[in-house]
Amino acid sequence: MINANRYTCLGKLWVMPAAAALAAALGSPLWGQRAPVHMRIDLEQAIQLAVAHNHNLKAAATQIQQNEAEEITAALRPNPVFTYDDLFIPITPNQFTSSNIDNITEFDLGVGYTWERGHKRQARIAAAKDVTTVSRSQVKDNERSLVFNVAQQFVNVLLAQSTLDFAKQDLASFQQTVDLSQARYTGGAISEGDLLKIKLQLLQFQTDVSAAQLSLAQARAGLRQLLGFESVPMDFEVSGELAYAPVRGNQEDFQALALKQRPDLIAAEQGVTSANSQYNLAKANAKRDLTTSLFYTHVSGISSASYSMNIEIPVFDRNQGEIARAHYGITQADELKTAASETVMTDVVNSYQGLATNDQIVKLYTSGYLKQAQDSRDISEYAYKRGAASLLDYLDAERTYRSTELAYRQSLANFMLSVEQLKEAIGTRNLP
Which of 163, 260, 282, 407 is the most exposed place for a label (fewest CB within 10 A)? Predict the structure, then answer.
């Protein structure tokens, strides 16, 4: 493991026991059951909850079951056909005798069956199975997108919590300055105008706290929607911190890895196989089926059997249209596969370059600018409280410090988001 420079964004929160946390993350509460109160989850637990409870993903997963049902339909054989007719039945009662029924009335009893030719059933089964395989990869790709959305929203919650904690700390620190300035004004050390400027500046700190509280509430609501409202309580909390941990590896290795395991690319490759199956099915459907029938007939007191068979002669309709369409479908699937491969390569390039840029930005802050901004604020505050610096110099140093701290937190969040984007682009949660 690589030592990471970490910035804790969460204050002390109530931590639920490990067993309860694991049960909350891995359990499957049904609709109507209440989620545990005071629930606290980390990123991996949030992802597990989303995969288990997100309704859009669960709806997409039903496509697999629907296609599996289509496999059953594809494997069905034709039903036999039962035929019965009774001719020349007497209507008048006095003619309805056993002798008339035996000698005049005609009975026909038969059974017929259609024999599929060209291995149609096997072709249908193969085509249906290939469609199911593609749908599994597509659902996996939906899960990949959901995981990224959860991670993105989780980082937003961490950023909002970090911003709120900083705003509260800054407000408390500046409140001390206001109290000291009030005392200095009472003692005649500063003018009323300077005191009013300081009190008006306090409004900015109070507004920052209110805005941070709103951002946190909105970020948590968005995360809860992704997790499933029934899986976490309204007052759930997140466990984690804005952290910087360098990612090892080069762009080419990440691209090679993505080409092996991106589910959307795998689905595109399976789509080529499915298109070939559809082409084979179209050719099999060009073969005309044979229908055979066996009849038992009783007429004029004589019982007899007969046999018939019929088959369509493919003079005009040889399914040539569907065969041509399926053939072009193979070309389409090949092109989509190529396009998906190029998309994967581009996604990895964009995410890797974004990660490299955000990595450099975080290093700029940690290389000294962050400490310099804090030292400048502390020096100006110390000097102002002792009358050695002007109010404007102190307020300017305070604004610079606040903007630098907020920008640093945003850069940490951007770095973590770029890591998640790289994971999504590759199709894995495990990076070096």
Answer: 260
Q: State how far the Cα of 426 lies from the Cα of 186, in Å rounded to an integer.
A: 64
Q: In this structure, what DSSP letter does residue 366 have?
A: I
Structure tokens, 125: 């089964």
User: Collapsing DSSP states into helix, strand and coil, what is residue 244?
Assistant: strand
Task: Please give the distance of CA 367 from its chain centroid, rounded to a whole number.
Answer: 37
Q: Which residues contact 320 (CB under 8 A, 6 or more apart)?
A: 286
Alpha helices, DSSP H only, in 109-191?
A: 120-186
Identify the helix (H) or strand (E) that includes residue 110.
strand 106-115
Which residue in this structure is represented by tokens 């399914």? Answer: 319
Q: Which two tokens stand for residue 431?
A: 């990076």
171 Cβ contact partners less than 8 Å away, ≥ 6 residues apart: 202, 205, 206, 208, 209
pTM for the full predicted model: 0.79
Q: Binning pLDDT at 50, 70 and 90, where does residue 417 land? A: very high
Query: Measured between alpha carbons, how far is 96 from 144 in angstroms, rounded to an integer?
Result: 77
| CA neighbor of 297 nearest in space, from 44, 11, 100, 105 | 105
> Which tens digits make up the pLDDT trace of 132-143?
999 999 999 999
Instruction: Please report how many Cα atoms fall inside a 13 Å half-sphere around the Cα of residue 308, on the Cβ side.
Output: 9
Per-residue model confidence as pLDDT tens digits over 56-115: 999 999 999 999 999 999 999 999 999 999 888 888 888 788 887 878 888 899 999 999
The packing angle between helices 55-75 and 120-186, to 10°, is 180
Q: Which residues contact 169 (CB under 8 A, 6 or more apart)?
A: none
Distance, first Cα to last Cα, the chain: 9
- Measured between alpha carbons, how far is 221 from 135 in angstroms, rounded to an integer? 31
The burial class, CB within 10 Å (0-12 / 13-18 / 19+), for 233 is middle
- Phi, psi angles (nearest 5°) of residue 6: -115, 145
Grouping H, G, I as helix, E, B as strand and the rest as coil, residue 422 is: helix
Residue 23: pLDDT over 50? no
345 CB burial (10 A radius; 0-12, 13-18, 19+): middle
Rounded distance between C-alpha atoms, residue 163 and residue 14, angstroms: 20
H/E element, 187: none
Instruction: Locate 295 and state its tokens.
Output: 């009849």
Burial grade of 343 (CB within 10 A; 0-12, 13-18, 19 or more): middle
SS3 for 298?
Answer: strand
Tokens of 190: 């500063």
